[in-house]
Specification:
The chain is an alpha/beta fold and 326 residues long. 34% of the residues lie in helices and 23% in strands. The strands form 2 sheets. Strands 6, 7, 8, 9, 10, 11, 12 and 13 form an 8-stranded parallel β-sheet that branches. A 5-stranded antiparallel β-sheet has the order 4-3-2-1-5, covered by helices on one side. The protein binds zinc ion.
């Protein structure tokens, strides 16, 4: 049997062993709501953040408070205890999840750059986050292709995080399917971040712009975007990225009350911010940030030798934060 056949077979086996309802089938979502519960079974103790029905079956969106991994599963697979958000904070106060929420809210008073902007201290490498704000231009596929080409020998699938807005998903189904195909081929491992449904941007000062714009409906921005992600086969992570990286203390608290951890960036490349060890790097992949994309390709080139020697890695955001807060 050829190597590739063996690896295909073991992949299929792995898939069967870890069988869970596929998000691809969630096209009839109803009664989608914020719902905090403790979910336990023989081997897991998870936090429910959302519940919904699909084809008359009840589903949960679950977070592992130690690894920050999320999944969708049937409610019938768990014993459930109802909680409210303050219970979650108290019961899991020593978990990676609540420590990360605390760290994000500690920076919530700033108008820009609230949330966690750095992961994995003292490690050689970065966390890459790519924002897909609404855009008429096609996806900058070169970013993803370059990551794959550079890391194919050292990290396959290469981890990165993509922040998706609803309006981007609606306008770019082919690009979204292309990204999903890279995940299916195990070329990339994508953490999907909620970047709001409408991603409002106007000409007003920052205090009235983006999510702070008058008339913003947070339930639409957060929950409708998650529903659209699920409909498109994306499992929403426990993370949230503020449009424009703009927020205030009140809105950070409101976003955290949805159970979401705001993720900032300390290296927005197009703004000239240089990444250092453990940086959460931000580039826009929606065709509107040529400079950022060029800077990133240049960065990859300068790190080429280090990538080969595994002295410069891409880190999974969830694993980076686990390491930082465990
Ligand atoms: Zn954006």
């Amino acid at each position: 049997m050829s190597l590739s056949k063996i690896s295909t077979l073991s992949f299929v086996l792995l898939f069967l062993l870890s069988f869970r309802p596929l998000a691809q089938n969630l096209t009839e979502i109803k009664r989608y709501k914020v719902n905090f519960e403790l979910a336990t079974n023989a081997s897991e103790k998870l936090i429910v953040t959302r519940s919904f029905t699909n084809n008359k079956q009840k589903y949960l969106l679950l977070t592992n408070p130690e690894t920050l991994y999320t999944k969708v599963d049937l409610a019938s697979n768990y014993t459930l205890t109802s909680l409210d958000y303050s219970n979650v904070l108290a019961i899991f106060k020593n978990s990676v999840y609540v420590k990360a929420l605390d760290a994000a809210s500690a920076r919530s008073t700033q108008l820009q750059n609230a949330g966690i902007d750095h992961a994995i201290p003292d490690e050689k490498g970065i966390v890459l986050t790519i924002d897909l704000c609404p855009s008429h231009k096609p996806l900058d596929r070169i970013i993803f292709q370059s990551v794959f080409d550079e890391f194919i020998k050292t990290e396959k699938p290469a981890p990165l995080a993509v922040s998706v807005s609803g309006k981007w998903m609606l306008k770019h189904p082919d690009d979204l399917n292309w990204l999903k195909s890279l995940v299916e081929k195990r070329a990339l491992n994508i953490t999907w971040i909620n970047h709001t449904y409408n991603h409002e941007v106007n000409n007003l000062p920052l205090v009235e712009n983006f999510l702070l714009a008058p008339g913003t409906n947070l339930d639409v921005e957060v929950l409708e975007n998650e529903k659209l992600m699920l409909k498109n086969g994306l499992i929403p992570s426990v993370f949230f990225r503020f449009p424009g990286l703009v927020s205030d203390k009140t809105i950070v608290q409101k976003i955290e009350a949805y159970g979401l951890i705001p993720i900032d960036s300390d290296a927005w490349l197009a703004k000239g911010q240089q990444p250092n060890a453990g940086s959460i790097v931000l580039i826009h992949g929606n065709g509107n940030e040529e400079i950022g994309v060029k800077d990133f390709i240049r960065l990859l080139k300068t790190k080429q030798a280090n990538v080969k020697n595994k002295q410069w890695l891409l880190f999974d955001l969830r694993q980076g934060l686990e390491k930082e807060f465990e």
